[in-house]
Design goal:
The complex is a heterodimer. Chain A is mainly α. Chain A contains twelve helices and no strands. Chain A has one domain. Chain B folds into two domains: 168 residues, Tetratricopeptide repeat domain (Serine Threonine Protein Phosphatase 5, Tetratricopeptide repeat), CATH 1.25.40.10; 82 residues. The N and C termini of chain B lie far apart (72 Å).
């Protein structure tokens, strides 16, 4: 555990020094701030726009950060040849993969926290500047704590994407890893279409294959509760727990496969 | 020093580029031919698929586009007033975010607005509101708006009454909906009742609905004023061979001044026929069609 935490902190420090995540977060914060201006175009729906854009920016830029850092976790070490002295240390390959993943999750957590603070800051200003009678007709309060449920599920989804990026990076080049991860992200959001495909196709074999794919491909649409929280609709703790547990199990499975692949890889 | 010189040269070069751009714009006017307005994604299903996990933001974008489309067509200097994309844009908005209440309410009011103020399509407004009820069956505002479309635009007080009754049965519905439903059955279409309904909408929470209510109440006042003025003009016609005019009426001391509508624009009187109408230039133009005048609001005719 000590080795894993040491690697995680090292990865976190390295990520913090990398300019690309900084730029992405700054851009996300600017976009969130500009949502206040965009809200002026929406005929009284300012707070909805700020929440929608804020959560979407957090999810989208979190996705870019997860993919960008995740695909380079292993390949950068191989490119710089720093993998050899690293593996020469008394650190097992599973510890290395787990530590790298933990460090990236820590980086993501900080970035998501920054973006969430930016969203709440804009919402705080909006809430302060609007008269109480207007605030009374909002679907949900401006500074709605329920939004944190959406942020939490976004974070779990990003952890899953990171695990997928890490998985691909254990055996593929960064460019291909990014392409595969992005493709799986898109397919993951179309998962429900796979489940309903048996009503459209004639072939039973194809129907069985799509049903199997539905269970194998990560169901990322389940992590999307942004619409519900923005409109003040309830998201139960039970749903949150079940979805998070699904994410955790999927992450664990992918990391285990990544560890197996990485352990068998020959770096000569 | 060398770096400073390079920076100065860069700034001068950039300024020269801007100067060239201004010169080009002055010499060669840009092509202002209007291109066909397109919806690249036409079906709600495809929009949902394309938006992935960002359907709410996509709905917001389509909503902004719907507002710009409506406002642009309504205020266009060429008075084109086509609104051909308003219904599809609202359909896409509500498909991407089914709980987007204002899109249903705002959309229904402006879909049913008669031409040239809107596309004049109450059927599309009804379909949109029924779609909203399908998603949120206990939202009394949707039933209320449906009743309003039937009453104001389709001149069907019986169906309107039924929708008011359904609205009154929804949770947290205001207590005036039931009496309105009952009175509507008895009285039928009536300007006084319309004034009452718009007065209710004036108290609603959405600023855009409030502005619409203020304008329509002013239009109702204008209609009442036109009725009074028409009576006056017909009672006191000008001498033979003399055209109808406000100045003539003022000179004959029938009126104290030129009558103006609630927005402050003078009414017009046809010189030959004596028909009193609202001016095209008035912010209240065009007035809603209303067959039968009823009890006057008591506001009187405003004169300038």
């Amino acid at each position: 555990m000590r080795a894993i935490s040491w690697i995680a902190i090292s990865v976190f420090r390295e990520s913090v020094r990398d300019r690309v995540p900084y730029n992405l977060v700054i851009f996300a914060v600017l976009l969130i701030a500009s949502s206040f201006l965009i809200g002026q175009l929406t005929a009284g729906q300012d707070v909805k726009i700020i929440k929608d854009l804020g959560l979407a920016a957090t999810a989208l830029f979190g996705l870019f950060i997860a993919i960008f850092i995740g695909i380079g976790l292993v390949s950068k070490e191989v490119e710089r040849r720093s993998i050899y002295p690293l593996l020469a240390k008394p650190i097992s390959r599973p510890q290395l993969v787990a530590g790298k993943y933990a460090g990236l999750v820590l980086t993501l957590a900080v970035n998501v926290a920054v973006m969430t603070v930016a969203v709440y800051a804009v919402l705080a200003y909006m809430t302060w500047s609007v008269p109480p009678e207007i605030r009374g007709v909002w679907d949900a309060p401006g500074l709605d704590p329920a939004m944190l449920k959406a942020v939490f599920l976004i974070f779990v989804e990003l952890m899953l994407i990171t695990a997928i990026a890490l998985f691909f990076s254990t055996f593929s080049t960064p460019l291909l890893s990014a392409a595969f991860t992005l493709a799986l992200y898109i397919v993951g959001h179309f998962n429900k279409e796979l489940r309903n495909l048996d009503q459209v196709v004639q072939s039973k074999t194809v129907a069985r294959i799509t049903e199997a794919l539905y269970h194998v491909v990560p169901d990322l649409s389940a992590f999307d509760v942004k619409t519900q929280v923005v409109h003040g609709l309830p998201v139960s703790w039970g749903y949150l727990a079940l979805t998070s547990a699904y994410g955790a199990l999927y992450i664990a499975a992918i990391l285990l496969v990544s560890i197996v692949i990485f352990s068998r890889r020959d770096f000569k | 020093m060398r770096r400073l010189i390079v920076l100065v040269v860069a700034v001068v070069t950039f300024a020269a580029a801007i100067g060239l751009q201004i010169t080009r714009d002055r010499r060669y006017a840009s092509d202002v031919r209007e291109t066909e307005r397109l919806l690249y994604i036409r079906t709600a299903r495809n929009a949902q698929r394309a938006a992935l996990a960002f359907q709410a933001v996509a709905a917001d974008i389509y909503w902004i586009r719907a507002i710009q489309h409506y406002g642009g067509d309504r205020l266009s200097p060429e008075r084109q007033h086509r609104y051909e994309l308003l219904a599809p844009l609202l359909d896409l908005t509500t498909a991407l975010d089914p709980y987007f209440t204002i899109a249903y309410r705002f959309g229904s009011i402006f879909l049913s607005e008669p031409y040239p103020g809107g596309p004049g399509d109450p059927e599309a407004a009804i379909a949109l509101l029924k779609k909203g009820i399908g998603v949120q069956p206990t939202k009394w505002q949707f039933y209320h708006d449906l009743a309003f479309v039937y009453y104001w635009h389709k001149r069907d007080p019986v169906t309107a009454s039924e929708w008011f009754r359904k609205a009154s049965e929804q949770p947290r519905a205001p207590n005036w909906l039931g009496p309105v439903a009952a009175n509507m059955l008895i009285e039928g279409g009536d300007r006084a009742k319309a004034r009452f309904l718009w007065g209710q909408i004036l108290t609603s929470e959405e600023p855009w609905l409030q502005k619409s209510a203020i304008r329509t109440l002013q239009q109702l006042d204008a209609l009442d004023a036109i009725d009074q003025l028409q009576e006056i003009v017909q009672k006191v016609p000008p001498a033979a061979g003399t055209p109808y005019s406000w100045e003539g009426l003022v000179q004959r001391r029938v009126l104290r001044g030129i009558p103006v509508d609630p927005a402050g624009t003078p009414f017009e009187v046809n010189a030959q026929t004596g028909e009193v109408t609202i001016a095209n230039a008035s912010p209240l133009y065009p007035l809603p069609r209303y067959a039968r005048p009823s009890a006057v609001s008591g506001q009187g005719v405003r004169e300038r």
